Amino acid sequence: MSSKSNRSWTMNGFGVAHLAPAETTIPKPGPHDLLVRVKAVSLNYKDRMILDGLLMPNMTFPYTPLSDAVGEVVGTGEAVTRFKVGDRVLGHVIADWVEGEGPAVLHQKTLGMTLPGVLAEYVVFGEGAAVLAPPSLSDAEASTLPIAALTAWSALFEMAKAVPGETVLIQGTGGVSLFALQFAAAFGLKGIVTSSSDEKLERAKTLGAWKAINYRTRPDWDVAARDATDGQGVNHVLEVVGGENMRRSIEVLAAGGRLSLIGILGDTTFSSSIFPVMRNRLTIQGISIGHRRGFERMNAAIEVAGIKPVIDRVYGFAEVPRAFEHLARGPFGKVVIALS
Amino acid sequence: MSSKSNRSWTMNGFGVAHLAPAETTIPKPGPHDLLVRVKAVSLNYKDRMILDGLLMPNMTFPYTPLSDAVGEVVGTGEAVTRFKVGDRVLGHVIADWVEGEGPAVLHQKTLGMTLPGVLAEYVVFGEGAAVLAPPSLSDAEASTLPIAALTAWSALFEMAKAVPGETVLIQGTGGVSLFALQFAAAFGLKGIVTSSSDEKLERAKTLGAWKAINYRTRPDWDVAARDATDGQGVNHVLEVVGGENMRRSIEVLAAGGRLSLIGILGDTTFSSSIFPVMRNRLTIQGISIGHRRGFERMNAAIEVAGIKPVIDRVYGFAEVPRAFEHLARGPFGKVVIALS
Amino acid sequence: MSSKSNRSWTMNGFGVAHLAPAETTIPKPGPHDLLVRVKAVSLNYKDRMILDGLLMPNMTFPYTPLSDAVGEVVGTGEAVTRFKVGDRVLGHVIADWVEGEGPAVLHQKTLGMTLPGVLAEYVVFGEGAAVLAPPSLSDAEASTLPIAALTAWSALFEMAKAVPGETVLIQGTGGVSLFALQFAAAFGLKGIVTSSSDEKLERAKTLGAWKAINYRTRPDWDVAARDATDGQGVNHVLEVVGGENMRRSIEVLAAGGRLSLIGILGDTTFSSSIFPVMRNRLTIQGISIGHRRGFERMNAAIEVAGIKPVIDRVYGFAEVPRAFEHLARGPFGKVVIALS
Amino acid sequence: MSSKSNRSWTMNGFGVAHLAPAETTIPKPGPHDLLVRVKAVSLNYKDRMILDGLLMPNMTFPYTPLSDAVGEVVGTGEAVTRFKVGDRVLGHVIADWVEGEGPAVLHQKTLGMTLPGVLAEYVVFGEGAAVLAPPSLSDAEASTLPIAALTAWSALFEMAKAVPGETVLIQGTGGVSLFALQFAAAFGLKGIVTSSSDEKLERAKTLGAWKAINYRTRPDWDVAARDATDGQGVNHVLEVVGGENMRRSIEVLAAGGRLSLIGILGDTTFSSSIFPVMRNRLTIQGISIGHRRGFERMNAAIEVAGIKPVIDRVYGFAEVPRAFEHLARGPFGKVVIALS
Questions:
Q1: Whether the Cβ atoms of residue D180 and residue D191 lie closer than 8 Å to each other
Q2: Range of B167's domain?
Q3: Any CB–CB contact under 8 A between D85 and chain C?
Q4: Which of residues 241-300 of D touch A (CB under 8 A)?
Q5: CATH number at residue B234
Q6: ipTM of predicted complex
Q7: pLDDT tens for each residue of A28-68
Q8: What is the pTM of this model?
Q9: Alpha-carbon dihedral of residues D185, D189, D192, D193, nearest 10 degrees?
Q10: What chain A residue is nearest to B295 in terms of C-alpha separation?
Q11: Which chain C residues in 127-166 lie under 8 Å from chain A, judged by CB atoms?
């Protein structure tokens, strides 16, 4: 197999202009590894930050980006027992986090960061860092799960244990937020979605949003959300913005409420008054994607509920720069790149 | 108000033959009490056991039975703040269990046991032992919630935290089991229902059962259920039978699985091999209906999901003995008595 | 009893100059209340903030301050069952929080805030808002428990479940911090104490501090604390300062670590980088004293371990202003006022 | 190294008479393995059951028994990063359980069961299945930890979260029970020890037992234990007997109490009335030794508290049969075999 070539895209510098097709040799799996022919990959906001040199400013080039991939097992190391050739698998992004609290130092074995990225025809996953793709999903749909879906799932059902009937405030309509909305709608939670676009809010309602708030017309969206809950406040906030936004997120929480700190779209810091945190006995918890057992549980739940990931657009393997440009515009759901 | 009479049914001895209409004065609410005009009550298996002298053999007569009631607040004590006249409320059966671990000695203030029962036109609830009835339900539907629904809810979402995608084995089609099935179907759990009746299993499928097993044709129903889960076993069992049945319930559990011990339809003891409990790190947990906060959370979840309790038949207030006879035959869902 | 007079201290305006002795009638217990002759009270930092008009700027005068009191039951309402005359009891400060998540709106029934304070010879506690004082403690010692000890206990053992062998960073040597230190030393946790005073650090070591860090000589105390844990970081921080201090508190936490947000000695806001919270999956949780069940559990633990609260000084009932002045200087442990 | 011989003891049939010295070659570590020169091993009750053919009746001979070992790393596979030559390590018995819920099927990689036993001069541990031995312990002391200590620890602090001040009923004075007693005494729990020997009970008191009950003179030991807790019952039972004994264990539990099902000294089945389990909302949980992260946490706690394992006797490597005979007589604490 090593005679065949492995087509990929690599960064030769920061910025989308330095992203270019490349050909390398197909990697050879170690004893516990899977060789996987990639079918589809999906983009995350952090991929844009890496491309722009914001997240990993000291990286060395050439570098293959991206973390989310689905593919078919085409070869296995001699010690592999969890999978066989022909299985359709998803790579687990934090490869050394199987379950529980995980490694003391995170991101020493993370796909597309400290491990090679997946924007290539052939990639290698450790057998312990892969899960079966949900059979009900297409390749494009399945490719969206490893970061966006698992982050939303972990926030709601692994780190927290959301209970049916509770309320969840969901910020915007990016990848993580739409998965949170779909999970909420499917599993009995009341999703309150905020956006600056009435059109996007309409689409969120179609996906099952219980309430929709335009934060442009209601800059005091925390008041609007509290009103929607008869003054009680919401039980969960999935914070993807940070900074000043988080002040309102903390104000909107009900007694005993929980803020899952997920994203940094607005700012990489946060600040708040201490009083509401103490008085309402709030919990703020940092979320880092999640562990493999959570991934497996989520896939089972997706199958039960028949959830179909929201894809804004699928690009071809030749269109990678356009896909990144689409991501920068703020898609409604996920941007996917299909191989073959 | 005390000049009006309060129609009720009272036990003057054990057995349905000693259940008779009675007239008493309307009770007077204390400072923290609600006077409630009852609209509907529902029967539970334990009411039959009380009627037959099996559960409370030392009771004194006359005794007004039943614990589940919905009604309208028609009077309030002077210190009441949680409710007002006109509210439609459900009595919380374990009246002194608001939340948390609850009283060290249970059932010192339990409706229809150590507090007067609710089979009467007018009853008194402590304001701390009542919740608003879900607006989406009729009186008959709402009357079924206090014991059967809350027991199923507590087992799945308060004492345990069932996660979407998990499997729940549900025994039979009585009141608790059908609520467990409806909660499972609404909130992303896979409900496996056992019954001796193919017809009831068909109806269970209509309600959302993921698998249905006839334990008459499959006396090794634990093997059948394990096969249905690809050999992994189920995550939750709601045990309503006890005795020998529980051996199979323990065998069918997956690693880390949980048996909620709820009922004694078959036997008041249980026994098991220790090995599967240790090897699979199983949890067996006793369930006693639940606390008021759980009741409130459940009602919110019922509203979100639009769950309609399954009522086998509604009887008139004059037909109480027939309602008990129906209960003895093993209804599909709840038996209700409507007042007015 | 109402003919006797009730000596107390009342605020007639903000500032210690407006604190003056007063005489009122002895309060009359309601049906579920205890009349308690106070033996000792203790001061908390929030009492100083109330006195200075910082915490409750809109209060009406005259106002009896303080929340922590121990005393003897000298009368009981006719419905009281939990206590009897002669019992030595402590008032539970958040009177309507028995266990679990507690009231949706906190501080509607809090001693010395929305309920009358305890700086008086006779006070009334609801029977549900009192606990037996630990028999091993003197009156002065027992009076220190309701806020300072219960806050430290709740942070470590109710909201979190600290496990023997874990590390706890403790800021300063005020009331909450010294209880945290004593609990740590007694129950197998490694307490790391910070202070600006070597002398206080020496005394902290005598109380069982595992490490002591002078933040004047080590302004990078977070680095010093991390070094002390072989680079792993600490498992728990009890944050009593807020503001900029909290940046270091977040930096010092180990993977999966937890910051209990308790106090506002330095600032009423906080801010932080989001990255360590996400990367290390940190939890920040607001603490509000705690519930009555936690108080009971804590008292049992104090008895087992023979913990003696650290009292800096006991003042007489005539010396209340001096006691407040002592509090302002930053005592080592608690400041107590003895009655009798 | 492979030219050197590896002295061991092997079973050539069931029964102590078929246990004999053997010489094999020194095993060769794989890429992720440690070669360890064993310093001391300790015996567990399950080793006796294996020797007698009760636990693994279908094993093939020759077979090297035992699971608990401490030793020095004398060689490492080329991929090893967690340890280095010279480290003193303990093998983790359930080698594939790092943390969290662990493998779905237990005991596929368990030392002395499905992996080779440790009664040999040289053994191999996976680097992921070893922990550093606590520096404060001698080799003999450290060798007692992997099963007995970790089982007691997991029951109290991993599967449950025992809180200071709670009560723990401890059955007998075998290895697991004495560790439970020492943990209880060190970490603020009240240990109630039962035994048929007043002499052993005296020694238990020396180790910190809060109460001691001779079940020969008090066959109703559950009543005696309940009396000792002022009628409340105990919070935790560590059940090492099973069978009829467990009926009393369930009766003695307080509301919300927990029975950790650990051992089968008396019977491999259990039975109980369902009523106390439901009424007191009891939890029964099976315990299987524990995971590696728990092992690491336990070792940290042992260091903090300065706990010294109780060793009844240390035998030489030539005295293995006598050590097994000692185990059969019911030692007070652990039986150890020293290599040197």
A1: yes
A2: 160-286
A3: no
A4: 291, 293
A5: 3.40.50.720
A6: 0.95
A7: 999 999 999 999 999 999 999 999 999 999 999 999 999 99
A8: 0.97
A9: -40
A10: A165
A11: 159
